[in-house]
Amino acid sequence: MTEDRVSEDAKQGRRPWYAIGFADVVIVFFTLCILQNAGTRMMDDPGLGWNLRIADLMWENHGFLYREQFCSPTEGRPWVTQAWLGDILLRLAYGWGGLNGIAVFSSLCIALTLRFLYTRMTRDGIPWHAAAFWTFLAALGTSPSWVARPNLFTFPALVLVVDLCERFHRGAIPARKTLWLLPIFVLWPNLHGGFLAGILALGVTYLVECATAVLAFDSVARLEARRRLRWWTGLGVALFAATLVNPYGFGLHLWNLRMIRDPFIQTQSTAEWLPPNFLDQGWFRIEMLVLLFPTLGVLSRQRISSLALALTVVFLHFGLTSSRYSPLWVVVAVPTLASLATRIPWLESLAAKLSARLSPELRAGLEVRPERRSPYLVSFAFAGLMLFASPWMGHLAHHNQELMPSQALDRLLANYQGERIFHGANWGGYLTWHGWGLHPRLKTWIDDRLDVHGPEHTKDYRSLLAAPPNWEERFAQDQVDLLCIPAETRLASEARASVRWRVLLDDNQVAIFRRVLPLSVKTVTPGAGSSQ
Length: 532
Known about the structure:
Blueprint: H1 2-11, H2 22-35, H3 48-61, H4 84-123, H5 128-142, H6 154-170, H7 181-191, H8 195-215, H9 219-243, H10 250-261, H11 263-268, H12 284-299, H13 306-321, H14 326-341, H15 345-356, H16 360-365, H17 377-389, H18 406-415, E1 420-423, H19 428-434, H20 450-465, H21 471-477, E2 480-486, H22 490-497, E3 501-506, E4 510-515, E5 523-524, E6 530-531
Parallel strand pairs: 1-2
Antiparallel strand pairs: 2-4, 3-4, 5-6
Helix pairs in contact: 2-4, 3-4, 3-19, 4-5, 4-6, 4-14, 4-17, 5-14, 6-7, 6-8, 7-9, 8-9, 8-13, 12-14, 13-14
């Protein structure tokens, strides 16, 4: 009976539940590769610390968060935690394995995205070795986003959404298969605010179906498009309702839309909102894929679907306007690029010549077998084993001192005695993270959540870094007694020259000062008489 069942599975192209497929090799290989990044910059995102403490703050508050509680100057302002569920998952990984747990969890999330891409390409008829090559290019293209933060959850979700939309458009799956979008759009808005990318993909799909229903030359194509359009209309309403299953309802959508349309955030905040600079280290990988898009379109005999073309172009637009979106374009575009590459005439001719020289056994191993699916059991078992073993992986994950000067910040925390601190914005998350257990608990001045702090507080922070003439009066008024600022700023230079501040640390990257004299005490500058 068992042998008959195995034989029947083989005939239908199914692997036994215990079989190891190349897709499992993909997730193992890329997880181990991505983990090599755990000590270079994966742990150094400015927002990692407050993302982790959101879970702790929710536990303390016995519920969801609606007001700012981390930074003292903006405490009480409205706050929408866009990734509370993703924060909890990261916090659980940290609670189990520390930094190693976060690194392993993040690496597995990226590797799962790459497995989804590989599986999609092989299922669509791309040879497994070609799919592996394009999966490798996708890994290179997404590498700028290999940092531990909830943004990582958007990648696998977007791959699944685009895949379902394109397959339904081509008629490769029945309508009921698209119902898998419902659980995706229930979870995604709670995992990360990038669910708007999924809504964008659905919107593009709907517009393409509208255009096909009206403009297609083939009457059958028009009828099929109208049928899909009716289905998408009903399902679209259900999917939008699914996105409202979050602690903030429609307020989550409004918060995210306001953030991505805020000109201050888009142009004067962090570099990730600005257009990509392809001269920066590593960004040539995405530039290469961008240049391949029109090149393959000209050389290939493959006609891609109108939806695949529209999605690739629309996401390319966003990827070129903000480096934050560029890796998202990569996961949308790579299957289309791979499909185009397989139908280039001279490559097909070269492949045929090389295949003729191979042995029958090797030639059979390179054949296209899109119908053979690898179960996820081995991949999930590997993921569980890696997470379980993360506490015993030694000093695998650590901070890059050039990106996150944790040693200097730990020195600040060691000197903290309850004072109010003025510090660099990129260090606020780390101070929230590691100042959590201090007594009294450390309240930061600012962090990278500019959507919470707003332009006024952010501009005031930047003005203080530039040391205006009344900077000491301002800090006295705000009861700031500790400074932890970039060493090259003008404020650091002024604090070094002031007798009211004592240097605790100055290592050419971070300068830490403690107030030793109040503003009311007169000081005497040699040869200059007294001054206030």
